[in-house]
Amino acid sequence: MEAHHFRIIDNSQLLWPSPLYPFALEDELMKQAEPGGDIIVHFWKEPSGLIIGLRDRKLPDAPAAMQELQKEGRRVVVRHSGGAAVPLDSGVLNVTFIFPSAKGNKSAFADYRGDFQFVSSFVAEALESFAQVKAGEIAGSYCPGEFDLSIEGRKFCGIAQRRTLQARAVQAFFVVEGKGESRAQAARRFYDRAALGAEEGQYPQVLPETMGSLCELAGIDSTTQFKALIAAQLDKLGNITWSKDGTEPQVIMKTVAELAARYDR
Questions:
Q1: What was the pLDDT predicted at 2?
Q2: Is the predicted pLDDT of residue 31 greater than 80, yes or no?
Q3: Where along the chain do its domains lie?
Q4: Which of the residues are catalytic?
Q5: Is the pLDDT of residue 1 over 60?
Q6: How far apart are alpha carbons 7 and 41 in whole angstroms?
Q7: What are 63-79's pLDDT values in tens digits?
Q8: What is the 3-state secondary structure (H, E, C) of the chain?
Q9: What is the pLDDT, as a whole number, of residue 103?
C-alpha cells in the first residue's frame, strides 16, 4: 500500500454550538482540499444528539418526533450526507476521513465504493488484536448500510459519504462506550413516532439487540483508547500530523445556517 500523509484534527473535547457544526466544518475542509494533499482525519463528538437523514425528515410525523426528543434534551438535526437516524452521545466517537480528489472534474465521483472499502479495511486492521470485524449490512440495525461494521453479528459502526468535486468525506460513527442496545432504543423511539402513517419499508425497522459497543464486543475501554488505536493504525500507513482546523467560527456558523435552511424542511 502506498504511503499516505494524514492530518489529524481532534475536536473530540469540544462542545459544538450546533450538532451541524462538525458537518459544516467538514464542508469547509473539503473546499480546502487539493489534489495530492493530506488525507484529513477528523475526530468529534456530540454529547446528546440525534442526527437524522433526509428520508427520515420526510416521514409523516417527523417534526413531532423531533420536538419530543428535543424536549427530552436531545439536539436533533438533519444531515446532508447519506444514511438514517443515528443517536450520538459522549460514548460515541465520530471519525471522518476526507480524501482529496485526484482531479477537479466528474471523475471524482466514479468509485464511491473504494473509499468505503479503505475505511472498513482500516478499522478491521486497527482492531485485529481485539476482535474480528466484518463488513456488511446488519438487518435491524439503525442507519443500516452495505458497509456496516460488526463483531459477532452486532453492529458498532455505520459509514456514510459526502462527495464534492474537491474531495470525498467518509463519515463513520463508532459506538465505543456503554451499551449499543440503549442507542438503538433511542433510534427506535424516533421511528415509532415519526413513522406513524408511513408504509413499512420507508424507514428502518430497528431491533435493539442488533447493536453493540466496542466495550461490549472487543473490550475497548473508552473513546480515548479507541482514538489511540486509530492514530496508531494511521501511523502504520504513513506520516501523521496533529493540527487544528484553523477555520473561522463565523464562516462555519454561516454554513450551519445554510444547511439547516436547506435540509430541515
A1: 62
A2: yes
A3: 4-263
A4: 143
A5: no
A6: 6
A7: 999 999 999 999 999 99
A8: CCCEEEEEEEECCCCCCCCCHHHHHHHHHHHHCCCCCCEEEEEECCCEEEEECHHHHCCCCHHHHHHHHHHCCCEEEECCCCCCCEEEECCEEEEEEEEECCCCCHHHHCCHHHHHHHHHHHHHHHCCCCCCCEECCCCCCCCCCCCCEEECCEEEEEEEEEECCCEEEEEEEEECCCCHHHHHHHHHHHHHHHCCCCCCCCCCCCCHHHECCHHHHHCCCCHHHHHHHHHHHHHHHEEEEEECCCCCHHHHHHHHHHHHHHHCC
A9: 61
Instruction: Note the residue count of the chain.
Output: 265
Number of Cβ within a 10 Å radius of residue 2: 5
pLDDT at 104 over 70: no
CATH 3.20.20.80 correct for 4-263: no
